[in-house]
Design a protein that fits this description.
Blueprint (H helix, E strand, L loop, with lengths): L7 H36 L5 H19 L5 H7 L2 H9 L5 H39 L11 H24 L2
Helix pairs in contact: 1-2, 1-6, 2-5, 3-5, 4-5, 5-6
Length: about 170
């Protein structure tokens, strides 16, 4: 069920196919994140089909990891991060669309990249609040969270590829 053990040319093609599939999945995920950010920025709501498509991508990512015998445990562990988000949603501290978006992000990114995405998103939100306060703008408690999450998610994906390039350059 794993990869076929043939000559070196087939091995190179197989590794190339793995990379191409991962790049295509990441690009589609980033596009969906940007669409969710734009919808949330304009209407303060995220259509249900966007987190649903991202959730399907997350399941495809888990299936891809299992097929290529890579560890899928980080994707499962990341789902535990969404438990407090449901509590925040029930208290009215965060919107339902944001919770669904974060759930899909956790499923696709896994625990490590989700932690990086959350750090980037939190930094972006703090910078935005400081910027708005310095300009004298009053910011409501209801802000669009998806743009910051999209920035964090795309930043985590970009960081992953940056690390790959750095590893290849030191070989």
């Amino acid at each position: 069920m794993g990869r076929p053990e043939a000559g070196p040319i087939l091995k190179i093609r197989w590794e190339g196919a793995k990379i191409v599939v991962k790049i295509l999945l990441d690009a589609l995920f980033a596009v969906l994140l940007c669409i969710a950010a734009r919808c949330d920025r304009r209407t303060h709501s995220i259509p249900n089909r966007i987190p649903a498509l991202m959730g399907v991508l997350g399941l495809v990512e888990v299936a891809r990891l299992l097929y290529w015998q890579a560890p899928a445990l980080p994707q499962v562990l990341a789902l535990l991060l969404t438990i407090p988000l449901f509590l925040f949603w029930t208290l009215g501290l965060i919107g339902g669309g944001d919770v669904k978006l974060l759930f899909a992000m956790c499923l696709y990114l896994g625990i490590y990249r989700t932690a990086l995405a959350a750090a980037i998103a939190l930094t972006a939100l703090v910078v935005y609040r400081i910027y708005a306060a310095r300009r004298g703008k009053t910011t409501s408690n209801r802000i669009a969270l998806a743009p910051a999450l999209a920035l964090g998610g795309v930043g985590a994906l970009a960081g992953q590829y940056l690390l790959m390039v750095m590893q290849l350059s030191f070989r």
